[in-house]
Design a protein that fits this description.
The protein is α/β, with parallel strands linked by helices and about 550 residues long. It has three domains: about 110 residues, Glucose Oxidase, domain 1, CATH 3.50.30; about 100 residues, PtsI, HPr-binding domain (Enzyme I, Chain A, domain 2), CATH 1.10.274; about 280 residues, Alpha-Beta Barrel (TIM Barrel). Strands 9, 10, 11, 12, 13, 14, 15, 16 and 17 form a nine-stranded mixed sheet that branches. Strand 9 and strand 10 form a beta hairpin. Helix 1 packs across helix 5, helix 10 packs across helix 11 and helix 11 packs across helix 12. The protein is globular. Bound molecules: phosphoenolpyruvate and magnesium ion.
């Protein structure tokens, strides 16, 4: 038995035979022709590579499909092909030229130190490795699996994933890769164990066909495990499968009060990936997408086109479930250097959230346009406005919405208004006057994080004030109750989306006051569901 320890990249335990896939085997005897001929070979290999990628695309969708499409685009990228041609003219041969250009180009991207670009570098490497394999006459269908096995590879690339029969791939062990690379993201969503960063010795061809036991939680890998290790793994795998049946049941379970009324469990999310994970994890809807994340994103920016892409990806990731996007909530605990906002003596009580529309209307106008266009293209969404404290903030915001909407309808950019508008209840005045506000909106979402801060005059980020910061203080609960009653009176929906929604004792109190929708971080959902179901079934 040989034990390796790598980086855990996707949880789970499994045992199966090893299938070695190592692209780093070098030592090919390459015959180098004249640069003119090598260029022709390179061009032909690119055409074939693109055809192969197109075939793979027929079996993919969503983000995976986009990655393969990006690879095709990169194979036509002049900056990249020029680098390759320069190398070919140096008489190194087409395959070596692609290797050299690939290393240079990808290194440059990686050195920028941006996770997104470094991910793109691995996509480019994937496409170019295919071209090299074609030039070297190497088999590209390395992942033809005929029986259940654990793939031990140098790295698993996006195009490999499209080719792998997931019914047979029991786990991934790689020398390269990282927790965040695409293969491991997919492994986590499909529940396939994965360990990366394992010593390259494991790629020894003699290991092919040997048994391996792997633990995706700890990163431990045992090649030719001893009888005792096999017994331990069997036992743990049994326990795990019992646990996963329980988790699956919880994902599908519905929380009901002792009177049988449903309490929906929604997720708070930051981006499309987060949303997809939440839906997979049983979220009945997405109660809060914090759009200010766009200011921090390297993948999206604030242009109209980029925002439309972000919102449409979010809506699609929700797969038809209700989704609520919150308009930019910037300032106070979410400062943004790049906006160069005016310094204020007391930012939590300053021009944060919706109040920023008065000094930066253009930011809000573009967001409204992007939201209207996305909803028109993808279907109905909820949009809510944060930090409302006085009625004119709401009516001024809606006046801006009307202005933008009218223009878009007039020029034919949209054909309808597919947005249901709501507001956050996170200031005491909004809760106290919720009856009045209810006449203007379709739903309320109670932000207990801020509501608690403002009701109890306890800064949410000041640990010295922690003992005043109590989201179930009777004063906070009273305002929640008032809000629920106003919502009931006007027949509009109400949910709680502050952190305390994920706290069992707080959630019970909110439910007792009539709240029937709790929105929380997706990784908190199952635990709270379990406890609430237990609690209410005892009655
Ligand atoms: C809240 O205030 O409770 C809330 C959900 O919003 P945020 O934490 O983003 O201010
Ligand atoms: Mg808030």
């Amino acid at each position: 038995m040989v034990r390796y320890v790598g980086t855990p990249a996707s949880g789970g335990l499994t045992m199966a035979k090893i299938k070695i896939v190592n692209r780093r085997i070098a030592g090919f005897k390459r015959v180098v022709l004249t640069p003119h001929r090598e260029k022709a070979l390179f061009n032909a290999a690119v055409i074939l590579a693109k055809d192969e990628i197109k075939t793979l695309m027929e079996h993919t969708s969503g983000e995976h499909h986009d990655i393969l499409n990006f690879q095709i685009v990169m194979l036509d990228d002049e900056g990249l092909t020029d680098l390759i041609i320069i190398q070919i003219e140096e008489h190194v041969g087409a395959a070596r030229a692609v290797e050299l250009a690939m290393d240079e180009y990808c290194e440059r991207m990686k050195n920028i130190g941006d996770e997104y670009l470094s991910q793109r570098a691995s996509d480019i490497r994937d496409a170019l490795t295919r071209v090299i394999d074609i030039l070297d006459g190497r088999n590209r269908e390395r992942f033809v699996l005929t029986e259940p096995c654990i793939i031990v590879a140098d790295e698993i690339l996006p195009s490999d994933l499209a080719a792998i029969d997931r019914n047979f791939a029991m786990g991934f062990i790689t020398e390269g890769g990282s927790y965040h690379n695409h293969a491991n993201i997919i492994a986590r969503t499909t529940g396939t164990p994965s360990v990366c960063g394992v010593d390259s010795e494991i790629l020894n061809p003699l290991n092919d066909g040997k048994m391996v036991a792997m633990d995706g939680y700890t990163g431990e890998v045992f090649v030719s495990p001893s009888e005792e290790t096999v017994a331990i793994f069997r036992h743990k795998m049994n326990l795990e499968s019992r646990e996963s049946i329980k988790q699956q049941k919880l994902r599908e379970a519905v929380v009901r009060t002792s009177k049988g009324e449903e309490v929906a469990i929604y997720a708070n999310c930051n981006d499309p990936k987060d949303i997809a994970l939440a839906i997979n994890n049983g979220a009945q809807g997405i109660g809060l997408v914090r759009s200010e994340i766009l200011f921090m994103s390297t993948k999206y920016d604030l242009t109209l086109a980029s925002q439309i892409r972000f919102y449409t990806e979010c809506i699609r990731a929700a797969k038809g479930h209700e989704i609520t996007i919150r308009t930019f909530d910037i300032g106070a605990d979410k400062p943004l250097e790049r906006l160069e906002l005016e310094k204020e003596p007391n930012p939590a009580l300053g021009m944060r959230g919706v109040r920023l529309m008065y000094s930066r209307p253009e930011i809000f106008r573009i967001q409204i346009e992007a939201l209207l266009v996305s909803a028109d293209r993808c279907g109905k969404i909820n949009v809510m406005i944060p930090m409302i404290s006085i009625l004119s903030d709401l009516t001024d915001y809606f006046a801006m919405v009307e202005e933008v909407k009218e223009k878009l309808l007039k020029d034919g950019t949209i054909t309808s208004d597919n947005i249901s508008w709501g507001m956050m209840i996170e200031t005491p005045s909004a809760a106290l006057l919720s009856e009045e506000f209810a006449k203007y909106v379709n739903f309320f979402s109670i932000g207990t994080n801020d509501l608690t801060q403002y009701v109890l005059a306890a800064d949410r980020i000041n640990t010295n004030a922690a003992r005043y910061y109590n989201p179930v203080h009777p004063a906070v609960v009273k305002l929640i109750e008032m809000t629920v009653q106003s919502a009931e009176k006007y027949g509009i929906k109400v949910s709680v989306c502050g952190e305390s929604a994920a706290d069992f004792e707080s959630a019970k109190i909110y439910i007792d006051k009539g709240v029937r929708c709790l929105s929380m971080a997706q990784n908190a959902m199952l635990a709270i569901k379990e406890r609430l179901i237990d609690e209410f079934s005892e009655f």
